[in-house]
Amino acid sequence: MPFRPLALVVYLSMAVVTFGTILYLMIQSNDPALEAIEDAIVFGHIGMGGLFFIYILINFITLLLKGLPIYRVAFKEDNFPYATSKLAGVIVVAAFFFASNYAPFNQAVSGYFNTVADFNLTQGNRDAAKEYYRRGAIYGNILAQSNTNHRSNYMYAQLLEKDEQKMVWMESATKKNPTEQSYASLGVLYEQSSLFFDAVFTYQAGLEQFPDSWALNNNLGLLYERIQLSDSADYYLNQNTNAVFWQKDVLIANKLAFRALSPERKSQGMLQKSGRLDHQANWMANQVDRDSVDASMGLIEEMSLQLNIFSYAYLKNLGLVCAKNRTTDFLSVIDPFLEYSGNDAFRNELSVTKAMNLYATGDVSNAFVLMNDTFEKSSQALPDVKMLLGKWSMELNAPRLAARYFESAREYAYPLATADLAQAYAMIGQRSVAQYLVGKELNELDSSKTSLRSQLEVLVESLDKEPIVWNQNTEVFAQGEDLLKHAAEAQNKGLVEDATILYGRLGVNNPFFEKGVLQAAKFFNQKGNDKDRAYEILRQSIGVNEYSPELIMAYIDQCLSMGLISYAEGTVIRLIDVLDAEAYQRYELDFEARKSQVESELNSWD
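^ that's the sequence the OP posted. Answer follows.
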């Protein structure tokens, strides 16, 4: 055909289609199809190009040796016809093709299967895509073993369900044309199966081929931290890599996590926080770990109510920071997240964190109620909740209540529950029970736990010789004293509304500050026609501080004063657990006398 213009358009169209196809295959990482094209190019150049070069030499060697311009010579094939050279070139190409055991053809078919699988995957046909990827991985192999092309093996492994199957095919994806992703994915699979050394070797093999890979350095560093090789972890997390901006953010977030998990690195300079959730969460974890908390923390704006692992970690650490600071920032934002129906997986942990903030800010009653409610509603055993309630009870000078919580935690085999339970029993005067529990624990303890054994032996000596002392939460009692002082001042000045508000808070905030609860109940009883509020204060108080004889007696008195005789009778029995036998008998006689008097007054009024 004439060269201009039609031949030029056809030639350019062929070029566009050719290079467009190669570009598409490169974007899809369809390495078997690319290898088929590479083989066609190499075989064609060697066969056709090589024979054309031989054709030139055989026919025009004399002229070339004389340095004459052969293009001016009339074209004449004296020794080796052009058609013969082309036929010989085809034969050479065919020889390469058969010598390679049909590899270019098999690769082309594998590439085709990959393209069909990609199309099905975009259409949501996951099963069909998986089958085509499998065909692409095994095509042309007599024993149906993987031909180790990257694309087929990698994608097929991603679509499998079982980790042990994924590992087999992902390992094949690293044998030929591997990528950073294939090494990283295989390493993660090994980690999930607790094959930590296999994961280390996989990441190291990947770094030999991709030494600047940020992902492989990051994963290897985190893995070394997981197996407690902190120096190696620090080394890999601080490598200069090819990370771009968001990848650098991930590395910084993980460095912050590493600092929080490595006590020996507390003295190192802090990495600066940013606006990212993962940065903020790990930065706050470092602050809490260093006992150097920032009181200006607040919630990142426009945070979705649907939590994920990053936003959950952020909220959890925000709660810990606010609890350390004794601020209400966390309490002011957490309720919508707890009420959102899609956050069931995170509700228990965040509820406990909220309770910790309530306790830290002096709202002891609601903290205890929330913790008990979380324990009761959870479908999982939460012995740590009972342990924390026990420790709070010890701090609030309620060892009998603490013993009950510790007993519950011990039933779930919570570590060290027995040691705390023994201390609680010792504080309520039952040292023989405490010594028995610790001795039984020592006899059943695994011989390898030498550190725990030595701690229990020290506790045994303390139970024999010294009174058990538990650090008290003086802060919350100081808050109660301060609130009582202001309430009394407002009452003395005749500021009834202010006094009502202050006594109302005093009555419900901390039922372990018994003096404040009793004063609040007294105020509302004297106020006139407000005995119901006094009753409610005392009822809630004994619901939390269940073993306080003063509060129980005050509640019984309140019931008698309101004519609620059956309620009073049902509560007297609770004093059996908190009074000695002689004191209980005296109280019971006095109660019967007062009950008879109340009944007589009620009958006479009728």
